[in-house]
Write a structure and sequence with these properties.
Largest sheet of chain A: 5 strands, parallel
Number of helices of chain A: 14
Strand order of the largest sheet of chain B: 4-3-2-1-5-6-7
CATH class of the largest domain in chain A: Alpha Beta
Helix content of chain A: 25-40%
Oligomer: heterodimer
Radius of gyration of chain B: 16 Å
Number of strands of chain A: 18
Radius of gyration of chain A: 20 Å
CATH topology of chain B: Aconitase, domain 4
Number of domains of chain A: 3
Strand content of chain A: 15-25%
Largest interface: A-B, 50 and 40 residues
CATH class of chain B: Alpha Beta
Distance between the termini of chain A: 52 Å
Order of helices and strands of chain B: EHHEHEHEHEEEHH
Shape of chain A: globular
Helix content of chain B: 25-40%
CATH architecture of the largest domain in chain A: 2-Layer Sandwich
CATH superfamily of the largest domain in chain A: Aconitase, domain 3
Structural class of chain B: alpha/beta
Number of domains of chain B: 1
Shape of chain B: globular
Structural class of chain A: alpha/beta
Chain lengths: ~425, ~180
């Protein structure tokens, strides 16, 4: 019997026979921890293993992205705990200037096709975008991975999701993603790997794949892959990582636990209303909802392409008086690209507040928090009750966030 | 040798409509504003602190109590604290139809029993399990017995890996005991 993509990747990293439902010991190509989780990893490591050493220092990293640079004393302490440990163990830190760890791992070519990568980030499965098996884990798992270079893993079943039809021109990867989250909910892909097929998936750029794969977490899935691609994607990835694209492909005779078709024909821009990412509507159903603030960034929509999408709508215009628009590039590299093409200046002139690269829009430590009664529209991936504060968060594409900030209410990109 | 059974008083996490609350995410279990805390003993007070209707759970729970929750319990973030806060309170186990993938691993690795019962909603509807009941679980056999009501039910027994890690009292000890890895 042939293997699906996830089965092939795991099989390359274990001596045991890989089959869905089997628990195997898997070798890890990259082990990482962030400024959240990281301090606990250090604490666990010192308690359990003393001076160590870590299994392979060239495969072990810290990435700081939760509070960059530290504006909370606790994070300042926690980052320093990780730096001190990194110095002792001679392991590399991608420090507070660099941005979101998962994106850095891709930019640095550490997360590449067929690689197994773990870290203390529940959206690490975003690495499926480049064909890598990324998996978020807690600090006990990561400590063990630092020391042993291995982890136990239950091989997930794979489902095939086929995207049919062509979404409307006002949409981007986020709309397609939210529509899939709506369709799959937290049940259909729960604890499974997903392979996305169909024209709409094949045509996705790297940034688009990042958007789609990041929200597999909100589908309660393990990881998502987009096996088919167009030449533009190949060029983008090769330029990005500096190495030839090694596309991940399933065996022809592999078997899927389920095949789900999703019709995207004429799909309108989508918005997820509170209290969950699965509570998705056409933008027209929520049109006119008053907003106080907008956020563009996060691991889901923090690439150059995402800010360009917003810029095209905001260019030469100003966000409505009283509306806060916060912009956080995913990484330093994105920040630089946006500087070079004048997009950051353009966004600044439109009234955006620009913050340093990192995990904005998600948790305390970065911008993108809401006060009681505040309504925020965000390109992030989660809007659970209380996550960003006592206010309410709607999730949407960069274009919808931009047009909504111009009008002070949830709006279709064409109205912006 | 650790015993494969555990008994305790049950808390059923019911929502307004009297149904099990589904998709309880890690920010509802242990909010991100407390992520900087690394001392387990400080975590218990925040358990379920952001879950509507259950915010005072940590003050009511007693050591040995058992939590019964809806499907996809522990969705969301990778934070170990969302498991450790229950360990800090001394809870005996959590029973749910399913768990968030990372959450489940985190619990297994720390030696905290998380058990799956696919048919839990039916057990709740039929009042086989209600808040306040004293219930006994056999992890290896997958057999449960409501001592208060003298009713039995079944759930998924622990997998061999989960059982071994539980017996070793966590992944670190387990890792030291085995040759592979």
């Amino acid at each position: 019997m042939g293997k699906t993509i996830i089965e092939k990747i795991i099989q390359l990293h274990t001596t045991e026979e890989v089959e869905p439902g089997e628990i195997v010991w898997m070798d890890l190509d990259v082990r990482s921890a962030r400024d959240f989780g990281g301090p606990n990893v250090v604490k666990n490591f010192r308690r359990e293993y003393g001076k160590g050493p870590v299994a392979a220092r060239e495969k072990t990293f810290f990435t700081f992205d939760l509070c960059t640079p530290a504006s909370l004393l606790k994070y300042a302490d926690n980052q320093q705990i990780c730096r001190d440990f990194a110095r002792e163990q001679k392991i590399k830190v991608f420090d507070v200037d660099r941005g979101i760890g998962s994106h850095i791992l891709m930019e640095e070519g550490l997360a590449k096709a067929y690689a197994t990568v773990v870290g203390t980030d529940s959206h690490l499965n975003i690495l499926g975008a480049v064909g890598s098996f990324g998996q978020g884990m807690g600090d006990v798992d990561i400590t063990f991975a630092f020391k042993s270079g291995k982890t136990w893993f239950e091989v997930p079943p794979t489902i095939k999701v086929i995207l049919r039809g062509e979404p409307s021109p006002a949409t981007s990867a986020k709309d397609l993603t939210l529509s899939i989250v709506k369709k799959l909910g937290t049940e259909k892909a729960a604890l499974k790997a997903i392979e996305f097929y169909g024209e709409a998936a094949k045509k996705l750029s790297l940034a688009g794949r990042i958007t789609l794969c990041s929200m597999v977490t909100e589908m309660a899935g393990i990881i998502g892959f987009v096996p088919e691609y167009v030449d533009a994607f190949r060029e983008e990835v090769e330029d990005f990582s500096g190495t030839p694209l090694d596309p991940v492909q399933p065996d022809e005779d592999c078997s899927y636990a389920d095949i789900i078709e999703i019709d995207l024909e004429g799909l309108a821009p989508q918005v997820a209303a509170p209290p969950s990412p699965t509570n998705v509507f056409d933008v027209s159903d929520l049109k006119g909802t008053r907003i106080d603030s907008g956020f563009i960034g996060s691991c889901t929509n923090g690439r150059t392409e995402d800010f360009l999408e917003a810029y095209r709508i905001l260019q030469g215009k100003k966000v409505r008086e009283g509306i806060m628009l916060k912009v956080v590039p995913a990484t330093k590299r994105v920040y630089k690209e946006l500087l070079e093409i004048g997009v950051l200046q353009g966004l600044f002139e439109s009234g955006a507040i620009i913050d340093s690269p990192g995990c904005g829009g998600c948790a305390e430590g970065m911008v993108g928090l809401t006060g009681e009664g505040e309504v925020q529209i965000s390109t992030g991936n989660r809007n659970f009750v209380g996550k960003q504060g006592k206010g309410e968060t709607y999730l949407a594409s960069p274009a919808v966030v931009a047009s909504s900030c111009l009008l002070g209410q949830i709006a279709h990109p064409e109205d912006g | 040798m650790k015993d494969s059974t555990r008994e305790g008083r049950v808390w059923v996490l019911l929502g307004k409509e009297g149904k099990l609350i589904e998709d309880i995410d890690t920010d509802q279990i242990y909010h991100n504003q407390f992520l900087h805390i690394t001392e387990m003993s400080q975590m218990g007070q925040y358990a379920l602190g952001n879950l509507e209707g259950w915010k005072d759970f940590s003050r009511q729970a007693e050591r040995g109590d058992i939590l019964v929750a809806g499907r996809n319990f522990g969705a969301g973030s990778s934070r170990q604290q969302a498991v450790d806060c229950f360990t800090a309170l001394g809870l005996g186990l959590i029973l749910a139809p399913s768990f968030g993938a990372i959450y489940f691993r985190n619990a297994v690795n720390s030696g905290f029993p998380v058990l799956k019962c696919f048919d839990l909603e039916t057990l709740i509807t039929k009042k086989v399990l209600e808040t306040g009941d004293v219930v006994e679980f056999d992890f290896k056999k997958g057999e449960g017995r409501n001592v208060s009501k003298n009713k039995t039910f079944s759930f998924e027994p622990m997998s061999p890996v989960q059982w071994d890690i539980f017996l070793a009292d966590g992944l670190f000890n387990y890792g030291k005991m085995i040759k592979h890895p």
